[in-house]
Design a protein that fits this description.
Elements lengths: L1 E5 L10 E5 L10 E9 L2 H7 L15 E9 L11 E5 L5
Antiparallel strand pairs: 1-2, 3-4, 4-5
The structure holds zinc ion (ZN).
Zinc ion binds next to loops.
Length: about 90
């Protein structure tokens, strides 16, 4: 999949995100895979890119406010089915 990846912190104006092809993640137990259709960019993303938040592990794909469809699911994900529209907001790993 194509993603904008943060490999090193830097001022947003210096465009520290790099376009990369990365493996499609495999959802683990209790996780779903979302095919992202839309992704908001908020100030948290700016803080992430500029290295102002603790515990950010690189490389990282910023963007934690997304809408998409469920494209895969690990075990124990309940009644979500493939194609379900999935709004999501998380500050977890990406
Ligand atoms: Zn946000």
């Amino acid at each position: 999949m194509r993603a904008m990846v943060l490999e090193g912190f830097g001022q947003a104006a210096a465009a520290p995100l790099k376009k990369r092809d990365v493996p499609v993640p495999i959802p683990g137990p209790g996780e779903i895979l979302i095919r992202v259709r839309f992704c908001g960019v908020c100030h948290t993303d700016l803080h992430t890119v500029e290295g102002e938040l603790p515990d950010i592990v690189l490389p990282r794909i910023p963007g934690h406010e997304v809408v998409g469809t469920v494209a895969g699911a690990g075990k124990a994900t309940g009644k979500l089915s493939l194609g379900f529209i999935a709004p999501a907001a998380t500050a977890g790993s990406a």
